[in-house]
Amino acid sequence: MTTAGPETTQQGSLLLDDQLCFALYAASRAVTARYRPLLDELGLTYPQYLVMLVLWEQDAIPVRDLGIALQLESSTLSPLLKRLESNGLIRRERRLDDERSVAIHLTGSGAELRARAGTVPLAIGDAMGLTPEQHATARQLLRLLTANVSER
């Protein structure tokens, strides 16, 4: 009969360095920290930047669809939108076809910010130091992981 050492159990290793969740956590923190000075120059936080990315892709999006795209609950999204609106980057409007629904629109300033933000993905890509193939593989694996974990 063999017994597991203090670092293992029948379920697997309990070593921190063996945990995929810790590798994801550390990578997320490192990448987000790398974004911070770039986004400070734009007057955005990282979550605000994500909102703006969606709006630069699709203006006049319902709040519900924005939350789905960003995988954020309304209680998390509302303060982000309020802050972006107070900074003059977006405006919220009741939809004419459904007064219960609010659509988010870019303001002129919000649209203009896109040009200044264009250097951000390049700088982050350089910092990551991945080949285009590695970048695509990492993105694909992370999307698969998200989908698999979300299904359960």
UniProtKB/TrEMBL annotation:
Name a Pfam family for this protein: Staph_reg_Sar_Rot
Q: Which residues form the HTH marR-type domain?
A: 17-147
User: What biological processes does GO assign it?
Assistant: response to stress
Where is it mostly found?
cytoplasm
Q: Write down the SUPFAM superfamilies for this protein, in alphabetical order.
A: Winged helix' DNA-binding domain
Instruction: Give a GO cellular-component term.
Output: cytoplasm
| Subcellular location per the Swiss-Prot or TrEMBL entry | Cytoplasm
Q: Which Gene3D superfamilies match?
A: Winged helix-like DNA-binding domain superfamily/Winged helix DNA-binding domain
Q: Which InterPro entries match?
A: HTH_MarR-typ, MarR/SlyA-like, Transc_reg_Sar_Rot_HTH, WH-like_DNA-bd_sf, WH_DNA-bd_sf
The UniProt keywords, alphabetically, are: Cytoplasm, DNA-binding, Transcription, Transcription regulation
**Which Gene Ontology MF annotations are present?**
DNA binding; DNA-binding transcription factor activity
Q: What is this protein called?
A: MarR family transcriptional regulator
